[in-house]
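Journal club prep, shared notes

We agreed each person brings one worked example of a sequence with its structure written out as tokens. Mine is Acyltransferase. I'm keeping it raw so we can talk through how to read the token line rather than staring at a rendered picture. Sequence first:
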Amino acid sequence: MGLLKVLLAAMVVFVHAGQLPGFPTMGGSIAVQAFYIISGFYMALILNEKYVDQPHAYRLFLTNRVLRLLPIYYVVVGLTLLVALVMTITLGEPRMEFFQAIRTNGNRLAPSTSALLLITNLTLVGQDWLSFLTVSPATGTLVFTGDFSHAWINLNSFLVAHPSWTVGLELTFYLIAPLLVRRPLWVMVLVMTLSIAIRAALRYFAHLDSMAWTYRFFPAELLYFLAGGLAYKAYRHLKNRTLPGWLCPAAIAIALLYTAFFGLIHQQLTQQGVPGGLSSAVYRLVITATLPLVFIGSKHNKFDASIGELSYPLYLVHFLVWETLGAWHIGGAYINLYTLVIATGLAYGINQLVGQPIEQLRQRIFNKNSPKKPVASRRMVV
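Then the structure, token by token:
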């Protein structure tokens, strides 16, 4: 599973830093939704097999999620501020979206709006909500917008770590995951159906089909988290069965190759008249269907687990790397590859210095609250 997560993070890098010449890659929305599916699988896994007998299990679950997310996020924020200082000294100003937004529009915000932006940047909570808000030109207070990309002020530009809005959306899922992923199959399917209905109503009746509504509105995205939950139920059915030796490696190959070459496959299909939405839906279905076998085939692979630990810091830090290279005009036509390589190196360093110590802390907290010796393997800690 780790290789798949890092590959999806690399797809997001190419969305921001530019595609490889002649090699179209996956769009950002599809990559993010694939992450949602994987997240749903892992949350169902640990909530059903790890956080089951502990006292105050819900609080322990949320505490561990916060410890997983916030320290690495704060490191990226700190790096952003450090780079901004260096840019100010050497270039005269920090040439990054966040600081440009403050310089251009900071004085147009009401104190309450500034306070909200400060809280979201400090806590990650509500960063996805900014996609549905802008400010009133008259008062600087928050007002609703149907399309943030055409709003008077795009509040997303005030995020210190630009990609972190997806983490805010994930936090919403964590709050309700214990109420959903332990339910019978029919309950999860019902909620998924409601999520699909919300998505359809927004698109076809409310005519809300901008970027915010296609993969940032949590009730509509809940579909993908629960698809991962269904994949966990399939895994639970398969994990104690004797499977053909070729099946799991084949599933891993399909998931990785389909992800890596999705752009080319999608391009060919759409040229043949296949609707783009159908092509994307097929990919999501394939990822959902292969996840149980991918996990079975990789859960004891230490290399895969180590690679997977880089996906979160890589996802968060790559935008900073891309903006930094662009500010100093480094990389030229190969800025995408420079971004990927440097961001991967930074992700490794962040994981070694911060991620692994935090992981040990999370394990100590979990073990302290376990009434019996934990039997979960290291692969269960996500």
